[in-house]
Structure formats: structure tokens, C-alpha cells
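S., here's the first fold you wanted:
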Amino acid sequence: MERSFASALVLMAHPDDGDFMCGGTVAAWTGAGTEVHYVIVTDGSAGSNEPGKTRAEIAPVREREQRAAAEILGVKSVTFLGEVDGMLEVNLDTRRKVCREVRRLRPEVIVAPDPSRLWYGNEYVNHWDHKQAGLLALTVVMPDAPTRPMFPELLGEGLEPFEVPNLWLATADADAFVDITGTIDTKIEALKAHVSQGTAEAEPRIRERAEAIAALSEKGYRYAEGFKALRFVDDDEEVPAP
């Protein structure tokens, strides 16, 4: 399954999350004319275990790297919401921040992590912040973005309610697949921009994972990314313009 979208918002916890999660898809979409925006909930300030490194030193490096990666992928804007890396909570404040961006950008699709994933395989426990970012995506779809009584202060900013038409969750239980055979090199190039994270060494793993997802799609792709696609409008229903 592949859809074309006029606009997309990629909601993620940390710098580099979106590039790992859907960088090939983003490159494919922007190449086809989709307006893609990144919203990053935390400041990325826990992104180093080097002795002596402080959060105040780490955060601006992560931001610069993310902006460089986004430029490679053709992303139109990158917004940091500034929550503390590793301490993200789903509360009224973070919900309001995410709602503000969704009502402002009014995307045709939100792409976010699957909040139900506690671990992957036998080797990785999902980061707390990833799960919270996924939950924020769910809460902004319902009830926050479309409900007028939620966050009335946003109405004072001129941000009217907005019903999100599509939500794509990056997950192992995918039912929507994007062919990234032509954009995986761009995804890898973007990930290499995250120099502080050593992402250049991840290329073999990225290709292996994309090959495995492509096989699951049964579409004959060489490389793919997969998502759980939730759609909240009928195919013949007009989707609000961004």
C-alpha cells in the first residue's frame, strides 16, 4: 500500500529518530512534492555518554545535526519543542505543545513511533521517550487537535481545530509499505549527518532492516519502510488543505 500526501508531519522524540524511522519515506515523499515537517519533542541533550559532556553542550550539536539531515531529505521545517531528553512525559503541557504544531501545520498525515512497542526482538528495549512521542501522536489525533474545548488558548492564537486525516505508526506490524529502493542512499546520507551519534556505522544494519521489511511487503521491493496506517476519512471525502 502506498499513498501520496500533500503534507506530512513527522513527530519524533529525539534528533535522528525520524531519519532512522522513515528517512527513506521522507526522501521519497519530498521528491514527489510532499511538504514534510519535522517536530522533535525533546532537546536531544542525553545523546552522549562521554565523561564531562553536559546537556547544555550536547543539545545544540544534536540540533545542528538534525537540521543538516533534514536538509538532505528535503524537509521544509524542523521544530524543537525543548522537552528534556530522557524525561519526556505525556501531560497537558506536552499535549498542548504538540497540538499547537498540528493545528498550525495541518498535515494530511502524521508519522510517529508505535507507542505499543516495548521491545524489538531480543536485543533492544524501546526508549521511554519513543513511547511517549507515540502516545502524544495518539492524543493529538484524539481528542486534542479536533476538539474545540481542548486548549482554548490555542484559539486565541488563531489555531482552529483540525481533524488529522491519517496517522502512520512506524511498527513491526506494518500494513502499509513505501518502496525506498531509490532513496535508501539518501536516508543513509542523512543519518551520517548525525556525527555525534556514530550513525555512519549503522549502514549495514539499515540496509538489512530495509530488506527484511521489503520482503514482508511481498511487493518485490528491494528496500522498504513499513507502517501501521490509520485513516480517519473516506477515500471520497475531501481532505483539508494544509
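And the second, which I think is the more interesting of the pair:
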Amino acid sequence: MLLQRLKLLRSKINQSQSTFAKNLNLSREAYSMYETGRRQPSCETLAAIASYCHVSVDYLLGLTEVPTPARGLSPEEDFLLKGFGRLDKRGQDIALTVIRHELRQQTPGKTPTKPN
């Protein structure tokens, strides 16, 4: 999976192997071996490629189909998610009503859609 993802990402940004490798401080020969599967990149190189292409290492390795890395939750977001999960159906309905109301106040004319 790695070789396919490397080729795909490089082609998406329309770079030759030489340019791509140079931007990662690699030789073209070393990078070419990654794309052909004759050599495996180190953890550091995988991290550098992921950072350069704005994807996660998990995506490069084929562990997820979601290319972009998930951002961490703020403490407030984490609290809200955990708290929401602990509420009964009535409490969740009330929380969603409050959130929809607040969003309408901030973006008049746009009604937030209900979650599935």
C-alpha cells in the first residue's frame, strides 16, 4: 500500500521523483526504491513524507482511508463529548437544541442539520 500512496501523493502535487526527493532531503535513488518497494523508509522518513504531503503516517501505510491527520481535541471539546455521552436521551436532545440555537444566532439564515 505504501508504494501506491507515495506515487499517488507525488502525482497529486505534480512533482518528479527528483524534486520530491530533494524537498525531503533524500536522494532520487533512495526515494525511487521506496516507490518500487525495493526499500522501506525509516520511521523518520515516513514522518517527513507525511508532514510534507499533509497526511498521516497511518494513511501512508494503508491503515486508514482518511488522508489528513486527526487534530487533537481541546479540553473543552473533550469535556463536551464525554459529557454528551453520559447524558440520557432527554439531556442529549436539550444539549443539541441549545447548540443549534447558538449556531443560528451566530450564522443567521443557516440552519444546522440534525445528526443521523
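Why I say that: Residues 100 and 106 are 10 Å apart (CA to CA). Helices lie at 2-12, 17-23, 28-36, 43-53, 57-61, 75-86, 89-106.

Talk tomorrow,
H.
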